[in-house]
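Minimal example, chain plus adenosine-5'-diphosphate.
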Amino acid sequence: MSKDEHKDEVQEEEIPETDEAPEEISQQEQQREYFKARYTEITDLPGVGSATAVSLAEAGYRTTPSLATATIRELTEKGIGEDTAKKVIAEARKAISLGFISAQDLIKIRSNRKLLTTGCANFDQLLNGGLETESITEFYGENGSGKTQICHQLCVTVQLPEEKGGLNGNALYLDTEGTFHPERILQMAETFGLEPGPTLENIVYAEAFTSEHQIALLEAADDMIQEHKIRLIIVDSAIAQFRSEYSGREFLATRQQKLNAHLNKLLRLCRAFNAAGVITNQVVDRPDSYGQNFPSPTGGHIVGHTVHTRVFIRKGRANLRIAKLTKSPSLPEGETPFRITETGILHEENL
Ligand code: ADP
Ligand code: MG
């Protein structure tokens, strides 16, 4: 370890002088290393022969990052022996350095977390710069509040270069309500100065018809996420299918268990691939302690615990909307207006 540290020092000293600041170079290097380490084939892992690789692929694990974030139980439930499960998960974790690390290394890893712009200045400000990668942001609100519009715009902004607030990556759109409109993407692409054809090409879309289908699509998504350089994973909407299929008290426990596993899978994919996770959620009226009704997101505590940031969208007059930050790990509550227009989600100056 100390030898490696010494090597780093020497390398840093040897960086030739250029117009770029040395600090910038080392950050870029770090990021390259980070992705290189994560993008190892599972068959490269010791102990993963072709038969195990096939079983793992059938279980939904085709890449080292997704395997590193798997649990032993998930693999054994899918018919993989416990010893093999333990071994391959441990090897995958070693390969991408998921284990005990120093706080100094943690800072480095955290610095790989990026912010994705909403494309709307005051909305970004509310979120302290944008949506965080390796984390799930939830937009909830009544029908027509603009959740799907926000998702569309994010599919475009994720493709922007980092200096423009994007992630220079692509989007995965899991649609459970059949409300994705590619024509809308074309309008928004123009707003952000992107070529229409490639912008559409860079969005991988799947419609889920049942909750089981929704679960299966995400479970099988890891190699596609890697191959298509996906940096934004959207599930619009995440809870609706579960609610309609498991209605009634007797199904509540099963529903919550499945929902929990699904959202956890989403979170782990976001962590594995340094992607931003987005879910949308409907609201139901719930009385507060004074007996007054107020709209509250569906899905109960399980959703509340898994998403890191919750944003409530409410309708104003005409195309005016108010976004309210109701949960954040590091920011105070706050709200901001925005408008939904032909060209997209607009910011304050245009109000
Ligand atoms: P939610 O997903 O929350 O149910 P949506 O994101 O579908 O709601 O938002 C619907 C709103 O977006 C409607 O008020 C609609 O008028 C507006 N909208 C959709 N497309 C356009 C457009 N091309 N130009 C302006 N407003 C639009
Ligand atoms: Mg919608």
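The CA atoms of residues 48 and 88 lie 7 Å apart. The two ends are 56 Å apart (CA to CA).
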